Fold:
Amino acid sequence: MTNLTTPPRAIFRQIQANLKDRYASGFPVLKELIQNAEDAGARHIRFVAHEGWKDAANPLLRVPGLLVINDGRFEAKDERGILSFADSAKGDEAEAIGRFGFGQKAVFHLCDAFVAHAFGHSAKFSEVINPCLGVIDNTQAASWDAVGQKDLALLVAEASDFRKGFLLWLPLRCEAIMPAPKLSFTNYQPYLDDLVAEFTQHAAELRLILSGLRHLDRISVQMHDETRLVLSRGSDSGRMRGPADNSHFESQSFRGKIDSVAGNSSVYVGREACGTSARLEELKESDAWPQVPVFTEQGEEIRPEKAVAHGAVIITDRADDPLEAIDFDWGVFLPVARATRLEPSAPGFLILLHGYFFVDSGRRYIEGFDDDSVGDSSIYRDWNETLRDEIVLPLLPSALHDAFQAQMLSTDQ
Structure:
């Protein structure tokens, strides 16, 4: 019997459908790349806005693009996750942020093909991820499908200070490398200046993100050999512990600072808990709890979807933003959706309300927390509401007390 096959145009259309109306700008995609670096245990992620190399053999390297480098691990299972559109290497990892979003495939909002290369690892990997190949005959995509050692050397040269790591070259969508007329995943054509500007415009949110990550310590942005942004966690700063199997703890505190190459620092405090809840355990034991396929060395197994009673509240000041407002964001490690905004006549803050919530596939809202789904009844909504009320929100008073002790808040506020 002949095995079923998936034609290239089916994958192309599925990517198109998944991207439709998902991203209003490039910044959500950049956040997806930050979460990928965090899941790989990286300490540093660098974004390099590059005009391209005119002498490169592969046309994808001759146009402007974004080079994304991190110093995280790369394993054989990661290769499967990159090369498989509908599969992921993170589905059974409770601590992986990438379980909660569209992941690396989000880059197709910026480009129609990209280069991925792991260096310094025992696992070797260098590929052009080219879903446009074979969609229709006689397109430019056929000339993209191989990347030689000389082209790889151009990319790796931009990461010469990384001993090992993983890089992506994202050639920005433009007419010069359009696979064929009207053949692209979206009509969005990003520009380097705009992408770099999005980093600086969202510097306050990037500080909040870095404050809540467990591994990543540094986010940097370069363009035209100039440093445009560097945010780094202070060397003696604490960090969130995060969920772990069979680990339970109550209201642990952490604090630190995020430094900037511009010289201004932000302070953050946080409280987290990983506990037990009778109601949450009851939900996980119910017949309605979702079951998901997991591929193991023994083959495919159906297992209960992983979820952990983990939550945290993180507060940081607005070092890059003079706005006199206090923004509360729901998040799953990274911010997902705005909860509310308060506008006192005092310096503002960003507050992340993190929980091991279930989110929509586009990572735009927490299931049950948005206006459209608030009336729906589902096991995801029940989990999210219980986690919010029993684990996350009870941490807020202690986190505010820590902010007062750190002199982030005054008695007037």
User: Anything to note?
Assistant: The first strand starts at residue 44 and ends at 50. Residues 88-92, 94-101 have pLDDT under 50 and may be disordered.
